[in-house]
Amino acid sequence: MEEFLNKYLKFLILEEQRNFDNRAIFGGFENISNVWQKDAQIHQVRKDISEEISLLFSNYWKLNQTERQISIERIRTLLNNISLSKFTTKEPITLDITRKIRPETPPSSPNKKNTTTQKGGLNTPLTVIRGIGEKTDKILKKLNLYTLNDLLHYYPRRYDDFSQLKPISGINYGEDITIMATVDSVQKRQVRSGHYKIIEAIVSDGTGKMRITWFNQPWVLKQLLPGKQFVFSGKVNVFLGQHVMNNPDFEVLNREQLHTNRIVPVYPLTAGITQKWMRRILYEATTYWCSKITDYLPEHIRKSENLKDLSFSLMQIHFPENKDALEKARARLSFDEIFFLQLGVLTQKKIWTSNPANKFVIDDKTLKDLINSLPFQLTNAQMNSFIEIRKDLNSGRQMNRLLQGDVGSGKTVVAWLAIEIVILHGAQAAIMAPTSILAQQHYKNFVDMATNVKSSQKFLKKNEIALLIGDTPEKEKEQIRQKLASGEIKLIIGTHSLIEEPINFNRLQLVVIDEQHRFGVAQRALLRSKGNNPHLLVMSATPIPRSLALTIYGDLDLSIINEMPSGRLSVETYLISPYERERAYRLIENQINKGHQAFIIYPLVEGDEEQMGNAAVNEYHRLKEKIFPQMKIGLIHGRLKQNEKDAIMQKFRDNKLNILVSTSVIEVGLDIPNATVVLIEGANRFGLAQLHQIRGRVGRGRDKSYCLLIPDIESNYENERLSAMVETNDGFKLAEYDLKQRGPGDFLGTRQSGFLGLKLSSLSDLSLIERARFQAQKIFDQDPMLKWPEHIRLLDELRIYWPTGFGDLS
Predict the structure, then answer these.
(1) pTM value surpassing 0.70
(2) Residues 6 or more apart from 527 whose CB is under 8 A from it?
(3) Can you name the residues that pair with 229 across neighbouring β-strands?
(4) Quick one: fold of 164-261?
(5) What is the pLDDT at residue 394?
(6) Pairing relation of β-strands 249-252 and 229-239?
(7) From 3.40.50.300, 3.40.190.290, 1.20.120.1810, 3.30.70.1290, which CATH number describes the 572-728 domain?
(8) Are β-strands 176-190 and 158-161 bridged in parallel, bridged antiparallel, or unpaired?
(9) C-alpha–C-alpha distance, residues 598 and 586, integer Å
(10) Angstrom distance (rounded) from CA 726 to CA 718
């Protein structure tokens, strides 16, 4: 084993000596990924460690120097762990090997079946707990519970407060209470239909008697022995004028109260697991392990933020002594989640800012000529955003900036100015859009802007711009590939084709990603890898509240365009009762008679796509045959192939259709200046951000535009969120409102960042975010690699929160 590991450790040492140039091994580290897998299998290296090292080897060539250094250190840590523990298992454990919470596992425990497996500490499989066999272990894996550490951090979804112990004489209807009582009698009876069996007990506590009933739970009869004392917790009801309890939890009095007489945790479950079983398992785990955990959060942070220690917090989050203890535990563990999220994005930002990049400068006179060529005046917000980008391009470090702006705020023009600066120096730029229609739209806009520039400078010319999409003829694609490689084409605009085609650039120095959340990490990285540390500008038309921007985009420099171009008319928005639908149809008809176009949108409910798709299809036929028989109507929905959707959208864009009936698949950023009405059916089913994006499909021309919101039933007419849409066209205000009302939703998910997610904390808690960011920044400024002895446990925990590492977060 040692000789096998030493071979790979020598490779790492040599790579460090060569300053991480990926030449320690002939052909690069990616060439030994398969060799490693075979060696690891022969020596029975645990599967999760083997796979992680293999992935680090295979991706090494893509990394910059700083990222390679981090990767080499990670591989060395994993190899040393194998050498030290020599702990192997044939059963794969899919979570990260870095789940190590100190101290080392104690030598024995009465609750453990096999103490030899404890060498893995809290990274040990759950089968070491009494009562968890292979069958139960498989069930727990459905809940993503693989290790003891997972179990300790499997927080309750809610709590039932049964801590109020009362005498029977003092109880009131509707209360959730606990009583201590003696069973006087218990019997089973069957209801007339024969479908239900009822267990009925009479209990007393010296102050009174009470009837307690269980439905279809015959096992209760064997447990409730007359003359024994029990604790009963549940809700008080009334039957025939008497207080009763139906189906309460109960326990024998002379044991630890887990299900009654306390604040009782209620966990998310799956088939085959009960609440009582889960509580017992967690009670065994927390009582044995919590007192043995050494806190990873430095003491000075705990004191500064008035946070309880980790042992107390994990114990109290599961089995709180009282409400105050529960709140303190929640405060501590919520802080941890945001704190580690901040540390991760700070790490990513450091990796980016350490990357050198070419400088691109433009003098003031040349810039003035460029701006004056525009047929409109830039807003202050556009100008401020461009100034920030201009500074990045001249900084000598890789730009990694998010340009965020509301629908129609003019992000594309700012991107064009940045592209012109790079082109001025003989370099190339690429724009990747999520759909062919959007790519074609960008192509047309950039050709128009390039045509308007009257200057002797080497700005973009029409023939230096190319469009590459799936429908581009193969002969034309080959010409584009040749001209990109030679440098004749300066700007390429396209979809996934930019990364799917065998494309080589002459000198790619600026990558622009439009609607960045529509692309995965690997797709963005592939486009960037076609250049030598190119600058990166990502654009989003989805407004993000400040509290979220501080967190999920903490690795990006942020530019915000929060001002609309002058002359842009706001869209008039109306909330209409379902009974007034005819008014909406008449408005659409009037607008079409004036030469305009309209959208009619139907909701797409997740998990019920087929049904909602059929609804759109049915409405399409009804509208076409009965409501607008003289109009040309198109239909688009999620079941169509992308080329079918593109063809329909192209017809609508070319004004060959009067009305487009659609689900929510209409493309973000699509520019149809002639469309003046959007009718949104079932508007209450959409989030505010989505409604705002759909509304942005109109109002893009010079004519007055309208957005009509119709809830699906009359009772939803008085809807606060829909009223907010009527009151403002400001996407940032709507985003703040949506965050408060509905929570962060999928904002974090769209980053595809590898972060495990938030269980207790909320991204709407700005105070918590700012406090956690301050402490994370303070630690990071002092010890960015977390190498100090007092930060070792912090690094281990950070890797738990970011199991896939600190990859591309943009």
Answers:
(1) no
(2) 430, 432, 498, 499, 511, 513
(3) 182
(4) OB fold (Dihydrolipoamide Acetyltransferase, E2P) (2.40.50)
(5) 93
(6) antiparallel
(7) 3.40.50.300
(8) unpaired
(9) 12
(10) 12
